[in-house]
Amino acid sequence: MIEHIVTAFQQTSWLERLAVVFGIIQVLLSKNNKVSNYFFGILSIVLSMYVLFGAKLYAEIALNMYYLIMSIYGWWYWTTNKVAKDRPISRCSKEERWVVACIVFGGFFLFYFVLKGVTDSDVPMWDAWVTATAWAGMWLLAKRKIENWILLNISNFFAVPLLIHKDLYLFAALTSFLFVVAIFGFLKWTRIMRLQQN
């Protein structure tokens, strides 16, 4: 088993390695509430889409397209919008929780039926769940809502075994790293929220 993992790491493409490095930089900057996280995120996303296409993870590609759109939106929102620049980290309102539920469950069913009916995916339910929960998390990140870390970690929790199943060990290692960083991101944002309230 270990020999198989080592061999898989050695056969990892440079595109996957670069996507992982840029992804690590992005999440560390995001944890520290830095707008530059979006630049590195965009680089990681574009490279990841190419790698995921080869693995036939079509919902993950759609997720990355969404990440790309939300990253461009988040970058614009944080840099050009005076209200957004000064917007503090906060918790979801009741209305925003409903939006999150709609994104998660609506996205899950949409992706599941598309993957099942239109693609040759062998993991439609799994891929759809990872994608839908991450969609909601990215929307919350752009809005600077602390719950983004919870939704992203639900996605990460299910994504790690999915990526291992697809022999994308470097992406699985990155996702495991993101899982840990998201825990610290949640704790740091909690501290920032407390400071904002004082």
Automatic annotation (TrEMBL):
It is a multi-pass membrane protein. It is found in: Cell membrane. One of its GO terms (molecular function) is nicotinamide riboside transmembrane transporter activity. Its main location: membrane. The chain crosses the membrane at residues 38-55, 61-78, 98-114, 126-142, 149-164, 170-189. It comes from the Bacteria. Keywords: Cell membrane, Membrane, Transmembrane, Transmembrane helix, Transport. GO terms for cellular component: plasma membrane. NCBIfam families: NMN_trans_PnuC (TIGR01528). Belongs to the nicotinamide ribonucleoside (NR) uptake permease (TC 4.B.1) family. Required for nicotinamide riboside transport across the inner membrane. This is Nicotinamide riboside transporter PnuC. It comes from Sphingobacterium alkalisoli.
